[in-house]
Hints:
Helix content: 25-40%
Shape: flat
Number of domains: 5
CATH class of the largest domain: Alpha Beta
CATH topology of the largest domain: Dna Ligase, domain 1
Amino acid sequence: KNMDQTERDLIEQATLLSTREEYIAWEQRCDEFIESLEEQSRIKRPRLSIGNRQSLIARIARLEGLKDSVRDRFVQVGAGYSAGLRWREIETAFESRILTGAVINSNHIEPRQFLEDASEIVLERVRDVMQRHNSVKINTVFNGEFVLGVKRANKSVSTRNYELFRSSDLQEWYASRVVEPILASLDEFQEHDSGWTLSRILNLTISVNKYNPLHAGCDIELSKKITDKRAIVNVQSLDDACFAWSVVAALHPAKKHTERTSSYPHYSSVLNLTNIEFPMTLNQIKRFENLNDISVNVYCIENEILPLRLSDRKRSKHVNLLYVEDNVGHFVLIKDLSRLVIELNTKFRTLAKNDFEKNLYKLMNNAVFGKTMENVRDRVDVKLLTKWVGRYGAEAMIAKPNFHSSSIFSENLVAIELRKLEVKFDKPIYVGMCILDISKTCLYEFHHEYMAPLFRENCKIMYTDTDSLIYHVECDDVYEIIKRDINRFDTSDYAVDNAYGIPLVNKKVPGLMKDENNGAIMSEFVGLRAKMYALRVQGKKDTKKAKGIKSNVVARSITFEDYTRCLNDTIEMTRKQSCIRSKLHEVYTISETKIALSPHDDK
């Protein structure tokens, strides 16, 4: 039986139960089905999309709610969590150092009440994790079913990762970092942006990641490529206060022996370090800035200089520090940020050999366009990790300030996504813009300065694209006009012995127009909307275009007459197509139904 049928059977059987023995047998079948759904969500189908996974969780929620209502008829249940809420552990990795679970809803219909009632469950789980791990990074995702007219879709509202320590106020975190941001996002989404309305609350997903903050120690040798820049001061000390020594080195520069602590006043006599603990962690720097009226930026080197932590505002006393990762970590003073950045960038720029440079001339008319217009903001930084400890383990990656989220493949394989510390705008977007602008200018010039004055009302544009036009022209012989004004046309693809006597000239000259049919007569044309049209040319197969629909589906199941009927009868036509998808590195196929033809030019 499929899942839908099994669920329907359990719902129907629930109404027919009359004895406690029948109830116990029914509940066992229900638990077995829920267990199979959980297994599909966690292990057997890692390629599940978020929507499919939430669909499974929603099905589990419905069955849990059904179990509650049936249990009330046969079993006296004591007090516990708020009615209609259940905790489900979804995924764990590295001995539960990374954990994802969900508070599943079955009865609540109002978001605030659901979130407030879920707090008991969430805070209990978080306290349990923090008893074992001391500090965590945690984020939440509110999942709901939304409606827009007859459409239904599962959508999510996420909160940012937040660092929690044993000293943190969990009640305050839940209220200010979970409840209020989610409710504000829901209000904004429903009222201002989309027209979607919350129909059903599915769950609140909690992702908890063990957090060992970046911490620093001293007496570390730096690599030669860093020291050769002569842009840093590395103070060697026997304590864990390399951060403080580096700040002192900035405030009281030494003329010689800059690596010795004896060249500087002791940091305790210069800096206010009330409640600051060493080794220094990034989350303490804000307090240090306020105590000493000093702004501090922290950078790291990963092929190039990247900011780890930037101060809110630059104060009169400002310090740039370099964080060097090792087993412990180490802060050093950057005395000349420009030299460090410029020389590193110059070196890597000299060694760079990329596809854009190699293929510029070969592909500059076509393939380059896509790269010039590429949105570099969409790029992500994902690390695949197979261990918890170590410099490149999951523990270290979660500790990074730019940690975003984790995805679990198995017990010993996790993907960690890091937020982009910088977006390098190195794409010549202006080139792509110019290509479009020049193309449009050429089209406008051809139509308004040549075709319109020449044919006047006997010339009508049927369809246009970035670099093409389809005309309906009434005249004695358009090919005689092409031959007369040959300097305006590329005729190099006409047959050598073409019936019109048109010479083959101007091959691939930019800016000239070309008869794509090469003398063949276009007898019929149907244009529905952008990228959706059909045309008939004498002696050739019908040309049918429908963007978003696979070419084999268009060729086999859509006819020229379908385009005509769609336009004349103002109807939409749908087609089924099979697609190959890949989720979490597992390839599979899906079947989808899409609008293939539409007379509405609404894109």
